[in-house]
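Tokens for chain A. Residues wanted.
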């Protein structure tokens, strides 16, 4: 990591990428690692790969201001601008709440409220003063309510992690086919940096969906999973 940072400071971005990728190949991940790798790819002009690793960093630390800032800048460099329907404000609030913590953060928070609930139950049954029992009862109710709410956010995030697969187009230009066959007719053309949703897999082909609802098949090596 130190060597990669030194290469980056010396503007040897290709060597910096190689150093960071060696860490990833060893099985490690981390916000700083993905963020620095995204910066190196951005300096090389590889917008698709830069956005991919910014997105990976954002998945680990959704509240990181530096990651959000650089991801927004990189997205302005993309060619494809997909029009999407505006979200209802309640859905926007919901998404903002989900992004407050990572999956690990929501899990930790659920454990904290669970322990507080157990402590409240213990105080209620072992307390001798009625006032202490009353406080324990209401604190237990509050802890139970917060535990339920946290569990809901945790389950939603876990479901998205397991079932919703998103990817970034990493090739400068990618031709999307109507079927998982190189001889199939072209559906449309997309460019690097575009975020897509993975719907299905057939051999080395992936069925993708754009934010505007368009669907098609693309080869696996033309996208990078977030």
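Reply:
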């Amino acid at each position: 990591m130190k060597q990669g940072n030194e290469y980056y400071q010396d503007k040897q971005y290709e060597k910096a990428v190689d150093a960071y990728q060696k860490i990833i190949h060893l099985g490690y991940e981390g916000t700083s690692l993905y963020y620095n790798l995204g910066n190196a790819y951005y300096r090389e002009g590889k917008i698709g790969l830069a956005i991919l690793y910014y997105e990976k960093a954002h998945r680990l630390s959704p509240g990181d201001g530096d990651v959000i800032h650089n991801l927004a800048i990189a997205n302005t460099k993309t060619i494809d601008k997909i029009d999407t329907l505006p979200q209802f404000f309640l859905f926007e609030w919901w998404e903002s709440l989900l992004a407050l913590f990572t999956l690990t953060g929501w899990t930790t928070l659920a454990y904290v409220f669970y322990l507080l609930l157990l402590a409240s139950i213990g105080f209620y049954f072992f307390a001798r003063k009625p006032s202490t029992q009353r406080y324990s009862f209401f604190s237990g109710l509050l802890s139970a309510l917060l535990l339920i709410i946290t569990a809901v956010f945790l389950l939603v995030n876990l479901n998205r992690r397991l079932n919703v697969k998103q990817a970034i187009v990493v090739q400068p230009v990618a031709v999307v086919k109507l079927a998982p066959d190189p001889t199939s007719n072209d559906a449309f053309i997309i460019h690097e940096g575009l975020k897509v949703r993975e719907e299905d897999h057939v051999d080395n082909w992936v069925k993708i969906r754009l934010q505007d609802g368009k669907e098609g098949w693309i080869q696996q090596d033309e996208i990078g999973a977030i």
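Residues 130-163 form the longest helix (34 residues). The first strand starts at residue 165 and ends at 169.
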